[in-house]
Amino acid sequence: MANLASDPSVLATVVGIVALALAPLAFLLWFFYTRDKLNPEPRGLVLRIFGLGILAFIPVFLVRQFIPLPAWLMAVVVVPVLAELAKFWVVKAGIYHHPEFDEPVDGIIFAAAAGLGFATLEVIGSMLYAYFAVARLGVPGDALASAWPAVLSMFALRGLLTGPGHALWSSLWGYALGVAKFSPAGQGNGLVRNGLVAAMLAHAAFNALALESSWWLNRVGLVLVIAVLWFVVMRCLRYALALTPKT
Fold first, then answer.
1. Residues of 153-178 as b/e, b for ≥16 C-beta within 10 angstroms?
2. How far apart are CA 81 and CA 133, in angstroms?
3. pTM metric for this prediction
4. pLDDT grade, residue 185 (50/70/90)?
5. What is the 8-class DSSP label of residue 161?
């Protein structure tokens, strides 16, 4: 077994893995933030919601780890419901009533920030776990070479699919929340409820595909789900921006 504690390259490797995990999340945070070119939100507020999203991941993770339920039930029912409600609570309690939440597109921007924050610990944790789990079984002195394929495989699943997925799922209810806030009284509750249900169902479909043993249903299905969601959310973004008065 490789003695990882005494390996001088371990710290550099961990830093590299964390940087790799954060790269697509940081890009997507920048991407959603810059969609509102006419009235951009204060960076501090967006980062605050991102940070609260990180904290929101912890109780959902604890439920997933310590509640004894079948894996499929936890992945397809419990986690999608709890995760979307946790991210929704971050935006509703943390920014919804703030004066800077002043146009429909803000719902998507802040929801995506919460989703990307929520995904951060999941992406980093899964990639580090893949590295150390495989490195401990590798040939002494060759732990890095034996572990990186597992890290990159996990990066493809978590960093390039699950991380963006959290932003996209959140954007579905974020769009509904933003539009509802500026809609006539009485129309908002149903819109927000439908947005939450859509996000939970999309999240559940992704997790169900992730459990599939079939390569086509797994990898190809996951990519297709994210591609379709990306198309839907970009349409929502354009519509939300069109609702913003041009001043």
1. ebbebbbebbbbbbbbbbbbbbbbbb
2. 29
3. 0.92
4. confident
5. I
